[in-house]
Amino acid sequence: MRIAVLNIGQESNDFNPLPTTLQDYRSFGLYEGQEMLEKLRGLGEVGGYLEAIEESGLEVETIPIIRGWASAAGRLDDATRLFFEEKIRSGLEAAGRIDGLAIQLHGACAADGMDDVEGAQLALCREILGPDVPIVLSLDHHANVTRQMVENADAVVGHRTQPHQPFETGKIAAGILLRMLQGEVRPTVAMRKLRLLSHQEQFLTSKPPMKTWFDRAREMEQDPRVLQASPFPMQPWLDVAEGGWAVVVTTDGDRELAGRLADELADLAWSMRAEFQKKDAVGVDEAVRRADAMDGLVILSDTGDTVFGGAAGDSNLILESILRQGIEGRALVPMIAPEAVAKLAKAGVGAEVTLPLGGHATGFFEPLTVTGTVRAVGGGVIPVAKHNQLEVDLGQAVIFEVGPVTMLLTELRAVAGNLPEPYRALGVQPEDYQMVVLKTASNFQYFQPIASGVIRVDTKGPGQSDIATLPWQRQPRPVYPLDEIDSWRG
Predict the structure, then answer these.
(1) Which one, of 350, 336, 184, 212, lies nearest residue 273 by Cα?
(2) If the chain, 490 residues long, is cut into consecutive pieces of 10 residues, what is the mean pLDDT of each piece?
(3) Strand, helix or coil at 348?
(4) What's this model's pTM, rounded to 2 decimal places?
(5) What is the tally of structural domains in the chain?
(6) Do 37 and 124 belong together in one domain?
(7) Which run of H or E residues covers position 68?
(8) Fewer Cβ neighbours under 10 Å: the N or C end of the chain?
């Protein structure tokens, strides 16, 4: 049998005005054809798919179409959206006979003038392949699942944990596809859309309330008739006409069961709606003082400037607090600042430079003028561990010391200092520091082996927890918690 594989991922943040371009995809690796399989064996959803095929013992010819993954950011520009549409069309048309398609998307990607990029990509695949070729869709569980997605996929698989395990997701989706192709199962899908949003602070599946919801989905899957029960707590910064949390249940031909279980999961989420709104983050000044008083390397989670949630990485709020309060503990602070990087790199190692930092991208922050010393200039493609690929491109990067703060300034988004490797590539050992600012609200796993604790910081920005004050325009209303309503249905 011949199975085509597509892996395209980007999570859009409508409150970050900077567009996502092809450069953002290239910095993480844009792979076509056999290079896709060679680069991603053992990694991410493509790696999970390949392991499922190998373990099946079946004779399968894999047709790799394209892999393009970009960090979360603003909406795609037109050129990028059209680029992937053309690659999908030309790749599938050139592939010849296809028995099945494993399509691996994020599910929360929007573009200029298009809210549902991935629904359109699925519709294109269905148009090319026809109604009878099985399509199994795997999604990040922060996807915004739409009617167009469900109508064009035969089965839907969501990530099972936060932090995510995309390898497992790819493997499960491939297993369902193989069972379909052998005639063992005939999936039917039920989706329920909830009038519900939530900030990011309760997204970890290791503790309630999210754990309670996801654990019930896993219990449902113990029934052999249930192929997948997938909760989708949509990431909270997507302002689209079909926005909101969702539940998708895929059963083996039992439509009534799929609908009943989807209703149950939706009811369960709704019953915990107030718990999902609980905030753990503390004010900036208090967070910095707490971290300075603790032992070991303390993670300061910059929730409002979560680059892994699509913010631009231009917040200087924690930096300003450290400097204003006269904090003495050594701190690591990352920032995505192309213009500053160019100026500092030109000045050279050892140069003392005064310049404004932050507030250059999104309008949420004011520039902060600082004086510091350039300690290192480097960047480019660096290796990373325990990520979805083996390497990322930082663009040009600079280590800039401002008082007790060691800043990692990068040209490209890359991983925004959320992994230790960018620091180490520029000669900085994170273990030598008192605190490290991470531009994420929940992906602490890369630093946790060397960290002594985590403090969520209540910062403003495109990823802020205070979602009620964001400038919503397209999100269907009413929706909880922006409005007081008594039912998830609508």
Answers:
(1) 212
(2) 97 96 94 94 96 97 97 96 98 96 98 97 98 98 98 98 94 98 98 97 96 98 98 97 98 98 98 97 97 97 95 97 97 98 98 96 95 98 88 96 98 94 98 97 93 97 95 97 95
(3) coil
(4) 0.94
(5) 2
(6) yes
(7) strand 61-69
(8) C
